[in-house]
Design goal:
The protein is mainly α. The chain has one domain: Hydantoin permease (Orthogonal Bundle), CATH 1.10.4160. The protein has 19 helices and no strands. α1 packs across α9, α3 crosses α11 and α9 packs antiparallel against α15. The structure holds phenylalanine. Phenylalanine binds next to α1, α2, α11 and α15.
């Protein structure tokens, strides 16, 4: 379960949650996001766990076991989405590695320079250096997979998750003393109800829930297959989903308290956490040490997420193409790197290419994956769980049997989730 939580907790909780919440009005977004986690995230996560544990197979095989022959390739959609996500995820993981190196090796004097945060923009705009960090992030993940030490990496979560949680908690407590703390609290917890009339907020919240838990890509099916038969799945799904949300809220607290303390813009986009956090560390005693620890933990958290994304693809290629583990991990890692290059260059030399609507290439890839591919996969997953898998079998696999909770789960995956996903997807198509 800690391994599943380790896959769930990553850049999505710190980098993505903070900027998406910032762009979508804070409190109202948080509310819709939590609703999506409970109504859509938990039931689908439970379904993925159940699918994995009962079939004891990786996702494409697990899905194929349930489906008639001509639908058997549906599992491919999840794999394709994981390819897309891994490609740009590695770019951000590269930023984290760069920061880690800076905090570890720069002089404290430089790190407390307030101009440090803006230097970030200059860093990501360079054509070559960010690519090197991105490549390093991918190579680390490939090394873990080719050596077959995923289980070892996942065991690191035993230490990593509590430590990262405590560090975030410590930072959140520290931010109480900041001048912008109350404003940050208001922004994150006081919903501006007018925001709820904007349809894109629902899509953003839904996408964030999928991304942050790591749903609809088959990753959680794999973790389900490791869960012991005496583990009660509903409790596992609830703890992983809520634990993941808690990490995001803590990170959000730290980020938004700082945003208002330093007079920054909460809606400035994907760079938010990377611009704000250095300000926090620059303005605290021992900031260089705390900053090093923070970026080290975040880098490991990103790594465990990347490993689980690459593992799904590797397992797929081994099974379907008969490739060796080494070959699969190397080729797929190479593919992720190549696909991620435009995402990185989009912050500099290619910034003109996708600047329609003020979005860069990475942003567009993220939008495509998180607001289109994942909800679509989620819709298919819900239909698979609710309509294709015989209800009795599904409930049994979910440890729900036939009680009230079981009926609720069936009702959610059969009607509520497909309807919600279809509506949110339709509204995103309409709004372009
Ligand atoms: N959930 C991870 C995060 O929040 C990203 C991820 C997505 C990992 C999908 C695995 C699968 O950073």
């Amino acid at each position: 379960m800690l391994a599943a939580l380790g896959s769930a907790v990553g850049l999505g909780n710190v980098w993505r949650f903070s900027y998406v919440a910032g762009e979508n009005g804070g409190g109202a977004f948080l509310l819709v996001y939590l609703l999506m986690v409970l109504l859509v995230g938990v039931p689908l996560l439970l379904g993925e766990f159940a699918l994995g544990r009962s079939t004891q197979a990786e996702s494409s095989t697990a899905i194929a076991k349930l489906l008639p022959v001509r639908w058997r390739h549906l599992g491919l959609l999840g794999v394709l989405s994981s390819v897309m996500v891994l490609a740009y995820y590695a770019v951000i993981a590269g930023w984290v590695l760069k920061y880690l190196a800076l905090y570890l090796f720069s002089s404290t004097h430089r790190l407390s320079d307030p101009g440090f945060a803006t230097a970030f923009e200059a860093h990501i705009a360079q054509p070559v250096e960010p690519l090197i960090w991105q490549l390093m992030a991918i190579l680390l993940a490939v090394a873990v997979i080719t050596r077959g030490v995923e289980k070892g990496i996942e065991r690191i979560n035993l230490v990593l998750m509590p430590t990262l949680g405590l560090l975030l908690l410590g930072l959140a407590i520290h931010s109480v003393s900041q001048p912008g703390f109350m404003q940050g609290i208001h922004f994150l917890f006081q919903p501006d109800w007018r925001v709820l009339t904007r349809p894109e907020v629902y899509l953003a919240a839904l996408g964030q829930a999928f991304f942050s838990i790591g749903l609809a890509m088959g990753v959680m099916v794999a973790y389900g297959s490791y869960l012991p038969s005496n583990q009660r799945l509903p409790g596992a799904a609830l703890s992983v989903a809520l634990g993941d949300a808690l990490f995001a809220i803590l990170a959000g607290l730290v980020v938004f308290a700082a945003v208002f303390s330093f007079g920054l813009d909460p809606a400035q986009g994907p760079g938010l956490a990377f611009v704000v956090l250095p300000e926090v560390f620059a303005n605290m005693t021992g900031g260089a040490i705390v900053g090093s620890a923070f970026f080290l933990l975040l880098a490991i958290a990103a790594m465990t997420s990347m490993v689980s994304l690459l593992e799904v693809q590797t397992a797929f290629a081994m099974k379907k193409l008969g490739w060796s583990r080494q070959r699969a991990a190397l080729v797929l890692g190479g593919l992720a790197f190549v696909l991620g290059v435009p995402a990185s260059l989009g912050f500099g030399v290619w910034s003109e290419v996708a600047s329609t609507g003020g979005r860069g290439i990475l942003d567009l890839m993220d939008l495509l994956a998180v607001e289109l591919m994942l909800p679509l996969n989620g819709l298919l997953l819900a239909l698979l769980l609710g309509w294709v898998w015989p209800g009795k079998e599904a409930l049994q696999a979910c440890d729900l049997h036939t009680g009230r909770l079981g009926q609720l789960w069936l009702f959610l995956v059969r009607y509520v989730i497909p309807l919600m996903l279809a509506m949110v997807l339709a509204s995103s198509m309409v709004s372009g």
